[in-house]
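Thread: quick sanity check before group meeting

JM: Hey all, I'm pulling together slides for Thursday and realized we never actually wrote out the predicted structure for the chain we discussed last week. Dropping the sequence here so it's in one place. If anyone has concerns about the input, flag it before I start.
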Amino acid sequence: MGYEIEKTDAEWRDELTPAEYAVLREAGTERPFVGEYTDTKTVGVYSCRACGNELFSSETKFDSHCGWPSYFAPLAEDRVEYIQDDTHGMRRVEVRCAKCGSHLGHVFEGEGYGTPTDQRYCINSISLKLRPADA
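JM (edit): ok, ran it. Output follows.
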């Protein structure tokens, strides 16, 4: 797929820290319960750390106690893309930034959370950058 923002691996490596690159560009996962935004309650908008595309609102963030920030919906469906992920012996749906193709995390359905969509977007903190509403 062609993205609005396309860069070479070398360009991404120059712009991202090694940890950011491992998650955003190589579909890695940060360890649970260590991310910057796992427990934050700050009101604002979460953007892709790689390109700045606005992805999630604090209004859809909820406490899932899974170890990563969780949201029940993106700001708009055209902000993310979904890829079938059959790695690690599991069938999951990967969530990527629709603007630059960076890996954000996964989305799960039917887990019984009391959210309007019955979905949990399980997103790596390191994939995001929070812009507080009062900033």
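AS: nice. Residues 24 and 57 are 20 Å apart (CA to CA). The two ends are 34 Å apart (CA to CA).
JM: adding both to the slides.
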